[in-house]
Amino acid sequence: MTGILTNRVKKGKQRGTIVDYIVVHELRHLHHRDHSDAFWNEVDKVLPDYRQRKAWLRARGAELDL
Known about the structure:
This protein is mostly helical and 66 residues long. The chain has helices spanning 2-28, 37-46, 50-60.
């Protein structure tokens, strides 16, 4: 039972991390309509680890149940 709860907590934390990335990404599009260097620089200011989050989403995003 403890393993199931631990797994759910880990998934919940990961989902929150990815949702944060998605929200920041979309909000930056209010200022930059493309994925230019200026856009990614703005994302980086808020989420310095955005590259890891982006890679995780690319690899495992289909598994998410948002």
